[in-house]
């Protein structure tokens, strides 16, 4: 062995450590992906595409998703085109993340659920999506608090 050159053991150790770091980093990303469990869109009421209700729904889902960036586990919101508009166009929604989830996992779950529900329930005014990490719900009716 020539002095000053790294040995094969050095390179093998370096390679193994690099692979462990990459593996750990990849697993962290995998854990942040929400795990779909179930959904419900009871089809009790539907809306027409390109109406104020759909616009309000899109705004509500974007708003809920953007508020999942905060360090909070529960958030609710309401979207309505105007205070004088028809009540039928108002959309109520909320999300709830598991208390043992990190803010990053909560954010990923809510973001995934907002995209997933509009695919699974494309014209329903009422929908709920459950993931192992969170729950997302929206409705055309006020969502009462559990007493």
Automatic annotation (TrEMBL):
Signal sequence coordinates = 1-18
The answer to whether keyword Signal applies is yes
Q: Which residues form the Gnk2-homologous domain?
A: 35-143
Q: Which reaction does it catalyse?
A: L-seryl-[protein] + ATP = O-phospho-L-seryl-[protein] + ADP + H(+); L-threonyl-[protein] + ATP = O-phospho-L-threonyl-[protein] + ADP + H(+)
Keywords of this entry: Repeat, Signal
Domain of life of the native organism: Eukaryota
Write down what this protein is called: Gnk2-homologous domain-containing protein
Q: Which organism is it from?
A: Castanea mollissima (Chinese chestnut)
Upper classification of the source organism reads:
Eukaryota, Viridiplantae, Streptophyta, Embryophyta, Tracheophyta
């Amino acid at each position: 062995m020539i002095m000053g050159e790294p040995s094969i053991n050095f390179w093998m150790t370096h390679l193994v450590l690099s692979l462990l770091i990459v593996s750990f980093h990849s697993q962290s990303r995998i854990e942040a992906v929400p795990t779909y469990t179930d959904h419900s869109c009871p089809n009790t009421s539907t809306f027409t595409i390109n109406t104020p209700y759909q616009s309000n729904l899109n705004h509500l889902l974007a708003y809920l998703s953007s508020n999942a960036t905060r360090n909070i586990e529960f958030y609710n919101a309401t979207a309505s085109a105007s205070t004088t508009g028809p009540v039928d166009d108002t959309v109520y929604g909320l999300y709830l993340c598991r208390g043992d989830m990190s803010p990053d996992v909560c954010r990923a779950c809510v973001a995934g659920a907002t995209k997933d529900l509009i695919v699974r329930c494309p014209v329903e005014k009422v929908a709920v999506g459950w993931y192992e990490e969170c729950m997302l719900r929206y409705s055309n009716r006020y969502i009462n608090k559990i007493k």
